[in-house]
Amino acid sequence: MKKEILNQLKSNYDKREIKPSADLWDRIEQGMDKTPVLSPKKTFEWMKYAAVVLLLISFGAVFYFISNKTEKILHLQKIIGQRRLKKKKDQKLKLLIQI
After folding, report:
1. What is the Cα–Cα distance from 9 to 15, expressed in whole angstroms?
2. pTM for this predicted structure
3. Which pLDDT band, with edges at 50, 70 and 90, does 24 fall under?
4. pLDDT tens for residues 58-68?
5. 87-91: long-range contacts at Cβ-Cβ below 8 A with a sequence spacing of 24 or more?
6. Per-residue DSSP letters for 25-64?
7. Taking Cα atoms as reference points, which of 57, 60, 79 lies closest to residue 68?
């Protein structure tokens, strides 16, 4: 019973012929005549490069400000160290003068 049904379905499938509609080629030609629409890929591509440039500028700015800040801190520490040395010298001079 199953074989008969399968054989009948197979023969029906083999006999089936799909015919395209009469105006199929006309529709294909009309579609080819249209100007191609720009794909969003090109728009996305330049946005990738812009994002990379923006990231590089951002990282550069961060490192610049951090290094500038550390230079200021080192300069202030140097000044403070010089003042401390000057105070110690002044204290020694006062001690020497008092003696």
Report:
1. 10
2. 0.36
3. confident
4. 999 988 888 77
5. none
6. HHHHHHHHHSPPPPPHHHHHHHHHHHHHHHHHHHHHHHHH
7. 60
